[in-house]
Design a protein that fits this description.
By secondary structure, this protein is α+β, with helices and mostly antiparallel strands. 15% of the residues are buried.
């Protein structure tokens, strides 16, 4: 049986994750699940608003869900970085959704 750290590494890189990213990028809605804004797929990968795969349940908390498609979400690189390994998805701009 593999150790949890080995599973974590396998989930973070390699062919299975590359396939999962390609599938989500191809078949997804191209909308950030954190901020709700569209994601421009033509941006370079280093751009803060570029597309990235996010894990709804962070890998640091549940490494066994690394390759589970139900745990994969689309996000802007910036939104994904801001969220970090927290399980909350509320951003400050979403907290006040009422129009007064």
């Amino acid at each position: 049986m593999a150790s949890p750290s080995l599973n974590y590494r396998r989930g973070r890189s390699g062919r299975p994750l590359a396939r999962a990213k390609a599938r989500l990028k191809r078949e997804g809605s191209n909308t950030c699940w954190l901020c709700g804004r569209p994601i421009d797929l033509t941006l370079p990968t280093v751009h803060p608003m570029s597309w990235t795969l996010d894990h709804a349940m962070p890998l640091s908390l549940r490494p066994d869900l690394a390759l589970d498609p139900s745990n994969h979400r689309e996000a802007h690189r910036r939104c994904n970085s801001i969220r970090g390994n927290r399980t909350t998805t509320r951003f400050p701009e979403q907290a006040n959704s009422r129009t007064w």
